[in-house]
Amino acid sequence: MIPTIQVKTEQNLSIKSQYVDVLIISKSDGAELEQIPDGFEFLADYNILTYKSLKKTLNQWAIAEVVGHYVSYRKIISPSQQNLLPESKIIA
Length: 92
Fold this sequence. Notes:
Blueprint: E1 4-9, E2 22-28, E3 46-49, H1 60-77, E4 90-91
Parallel strand pairs: 3-4
Antiparallel strand pairs: 1-2, 2-3
């Protein structure tokens, strides 16, 4: 069974505007996809992905940004700072 996914783009994750290129935040109920894109076979409940155009490289800074967004988003969606969602529920 291929899950249906909900995609939000340009999700604001900070007080100072910073955006993730693509943020897939959750699996959802609905019609199943006929074909799932490569790399999307094992989605967690929440998933943060980034992509770069052919003109930009996925360098150390870009990876650090994704890790920072992961930490921020995990705090935002968790019930409290003392009760963070398990790491298995969110993947960056």
